[in-house]
Each structure stands twice: as structure tokens, then as C-alpha cells.
Amino acid sequence: MTSRKYISAQGRSIDLGALVLKNEHVRAVGNVGVNARGDTLDSLDRPIESQQQKSRKHYEKQTAGNVRNSPVKTKREGK
β-strand 40-41 against 13-15: which pairing, if any? Predict the structure, then answer.
């Protein structure tokens, strides 16, 4: 991960990259039910579906209607 280091107003150094990696499996604040990585969690904070699986499912849903099983014939081929 990138090294994002910042200096606070009190002069303390904060490494946000390490902070994100440390807390990526912790449930995010809010009512969505995901962790910091975007994985869907159940009531016991166990991952149900990863962010990659959700993205893949969404992509397949978007592209499923665009694929044709038969080739498209033009008017010239019919002559």
C-alpha cells in the first residue's frame, strides 16, 4: 500500500496506509453492513461476499444482455 504519512496539528506523524491495513477487516460505521474493504458482512462480522465477487457479478449482469449466441447477418450475405 502507499505510504501516506501526514503530520497532525499537534505535530504527531500519522501513517494512514498502515491504519487502513490494520482495520480493513473491521466493520465500517453505518447501516450498510460492510467492512473497510467493501466485503458484505453477516451479523457476526463474517464476510458473506467479497468486493471482488460483487464487482464480478455486477459486470456479468451488465454484459449478459450484450452477447449474442448467433452471428449477425447483413443484407449482403443473404444475396
Answer: unpaired
